[in-house]
Amino acid sequence: MQYGRRGRGEERRGFGPRRFPPKPVDIGKEYDVEIQETSRRGEGIARIKGLVCFVRDTKPGEHVRIRIIRISRRFAEAEVVGKAEAAPAEEEVEEAAEEEEETEESEE
Fold first, then answer.
1. What is the CATH number of the domain that holds 66?
2. DSSP secondary-structure letter at 56?
3. Phi–psi pair at 84, nearest 5 degrees
4. Do the domain assignments include residue 79?
5. 96 Cβ partners below 8 Å, 6+ apart?
6. Which of 13, 20, 82, 101 gives a 20 to 30 Å CA spacing to 67?
7. Out of 8-12, 54-58, 94-98, which region has the weakest mean confidence (pLDDT)?
8. Residue 38 structural domain
9. What is the dihedral of CA 36, 25, 85, 89, to 10 degrees?
């Protein structure tokens, strides 16, 4: 068993600097999110592609539009810009698809 310095060919195992993947958000961009839970400090917590986002003055269950104001290694902070835009109901999407098919058939 050797103690002391490692030779040149030996690799260092395990205790290197941790590399964090690129963030799925950018500062200044806006996102529609659902607040999932509350932090210890009382801020709402939303997740964007797995990245935790802290949003002030929100409660669980709210759908809001946020703007990213700060990005850290493991989380982001955001502010509320307004209410999230409502996504169209599935029935409306299906009806729109049927109408498009009908117009394509009539054009041929």
1. 2.40.50.140
2. T
3. -70, 145
4. yes
5. 88
6. 20
7. 94-98
8. 22-84
9. -70
* Residue of higher predicted confidence among 8 and 33: 33
CA angle 62, 65, 66 (to 5 degrees): 105
pLDDT of amino acid 19: 73
Task: Give tens-digit pLDDT for 17-35.
Answer: 767 778 999 999 999 999 9
| pTM listed for this prediction | 0.62
Tell me, what DSSP letter sits at residue 33?
E
Asked if residue 89 belongs to a domain, the reply is no
Environment class of 75 (CB within 10 Å of its CB; exposed 0-12, middle 13-18, buried 19+) = middle
Question: Cα separation of 86 and 59, whole Å?
Answer: 18
Q: Quick one: pLDDT at residue 49? A: 94
* Sheet order of strands, 51-55 included: 30-34, 63-71, 75-83, 51-55, 44-48, 37-38
